[in-house]
């Protein structure tokens, strides 16, 4: 195998693929990165038990030659050594040559490296060649769906299904839902391209976080295809394959209150800053509990206390307050996690009582909903 490639393009693909490579895998060859040279492109592949990522670098991009002197072949090179070498090379042109003994030579300027590779025939075959596309979605919309839901997945493996985000498609309405049983995050979006009427599966939250790191925040469409126990995201030579979680996801619709007893409209930034100050003295061993009390004249009070440290109280004026008087306690961390994902300045919080879930939403955007369970205090 041999090729000469422009370093910046090789490095960009390496940085995407390396997200799928782990030193903790039980399959030794998966600790390396697979490199394949084809007639008109180079393919880089990384994989672990959860995700696989593949990037294809074409020989030509916008009439500019990116790769030259291609001799077909393949090798698996060690990570992190191969990426670190490429990152430190002195020149923009990189020559990679592999012989029959799996010895790889990497040359750039006056720098010469020799790496011992592994036989690529031992690398698992990935089901990436798929023509069927279930639906297409803009990359920026996919990133928004991930951002506004994945924070609410469970970090506990006691209920594995809750460590994932449920992805549901009903006609052209795509919904991402996440819950750890103490909170829920839901985001809906209408998509233009869908080749199936309905689908539903659960993607590990960790997989979606890795995907979010890699894809650009732009209007380009990415294709989504469901395979056997896996889901594939692909676009112009980029392939991201994730396993799916098995099991029955909770019927989250039943958790969402349809009525409210108390409703407040408040500036998101002002509320966040007040809660952040209250959290400074919240008891961290007791879920960072803070308290919200409604007052007269469109005011609320945010407070917290720690027996060993002290207490804090702060009143703020809000845009509107409707309904019954309310005193409720909840996790500062949970509500801050929710508020940080909302981009609008104004939010509405609907309460159904001191010991029932409350909903955070955006008045002018019904596509987003966050739900948090209160905490009983004594």
Write up this protein.
- The chain is of the alpha+beta class.
- It folds into three domains: 2-122, DNA Polymerase III, Chain A, domain 2 (Roll); 135-251, Roll (DNA Polymerase III, Chain A, domain 2), CATH 3.10.150; 256-372, Proliferating Cell Nuclear Antigen.
- 16% of the residues lie in helices and 45% in strands.
- It has six helices and 29 strands.
- The chain has helices at residues 7-17, 81-88, 139-147, 205-214, 268-279, 332-341, and strands at 2-6, 32-37, 41-47, 51-58, 60-61, 64-65, 67-71, 73-78, 93-98, 103-108, 111-116, 135-138, 164-170, 173-179, 183-190, 193-194, 198-204, 221-227, 230-235, 238-243, 262-267, 289-295, 299-306, 310-317, 320-323, 327-331, 346-351, 358-362, 365-372.
- The strands form five sheets. The chain has a nine-stranded antiparallel beta sheet. It has a nine-stranded antiparallel beta sheet with strand order 17-13-14-15-29-28-27-21-25.
- A hairpin with a 2-residue loop joins strand 28 and strand 29.
- Helix 5 packs antiparallel against helix 6 (332-341).
- The protein is elongated.
- The termini are far apart.
- The model has no long low-confidence stretch (mean pLDDT 94).
């Amino acid at each position: 195998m041999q090729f000469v490639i422009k370093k910046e393009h090789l490095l960009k693909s390496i940085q995407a693929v390396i997200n799928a490579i782990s030193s903790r895998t039980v399959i030794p060859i998966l600790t390396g990165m697979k490199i394949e040279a084809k007639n008109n492109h180079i393919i880089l592949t990384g994989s672990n038990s959860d995700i696989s990522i593949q990037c294809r670098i074409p020989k030509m991009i916008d009439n500019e030659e990116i790769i030259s002197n291609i001799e077909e072949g393949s090798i698996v090179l060690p990570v992190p050594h191969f990426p670190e070498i490429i990152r430190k090379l002195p020149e923009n042109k990189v020559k990679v040559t592999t012989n029959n003994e799996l010895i790889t030579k990497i040359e750039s300027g006056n720098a010469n490296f020799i790496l011992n590779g592994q036989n690529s025939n031992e690398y698992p075959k990935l089901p990436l060649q798929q023509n069927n596309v279930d639906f297409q979605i803009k990359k920026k919309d996919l990133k928004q769906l991930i951002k506004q839901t994945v924070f609410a997945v469970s970090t506990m493996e006691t209920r594995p299904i809750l460590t994932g985000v449920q992805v549901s498609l009903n006609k052209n309405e795509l919904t991402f839902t996440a819950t750890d049983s103490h909170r829920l995050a839901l985001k809906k979006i209408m998509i233009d391209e869908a080749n199936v009427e309905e689908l539903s599966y659960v993607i590990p939250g960790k997989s979606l976080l890795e995907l979010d790191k890699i894809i650009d925040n732009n209007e380009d469409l990415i294709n989504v295809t469901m395979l056997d126990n896996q889901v594939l995201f692909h676009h112009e030579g980029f392939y991201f394959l994730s396993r799916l979680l098995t099991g029955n996801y909770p019927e989250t619709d039943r958790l969402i209150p349809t009525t409210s007893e108390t409703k407040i409209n408040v500036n998101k930034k002002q509320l966040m800053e007040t809660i952040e100050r209250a959290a400074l003295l919240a008891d961290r061993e007791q879920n960072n509990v803070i308290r919200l009390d409604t007052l007269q004249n469109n005011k609320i009070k945010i407070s917290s206390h720690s027996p060993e440290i002290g207490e804090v109280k702060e009143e703020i004026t809000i845009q509107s307050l409707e309904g019954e008087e309310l005193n409720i306690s909840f996790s500062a961390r949970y509500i801050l996690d929710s508020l940080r994902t909302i981009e609008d300045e104004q939010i509405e919080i609907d309460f159904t009582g001191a010991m029932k879930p409350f909903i955070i939403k955006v008045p002018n955007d019904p596509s987003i909903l966050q739900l948090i369970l209160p905490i009983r205090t004594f």
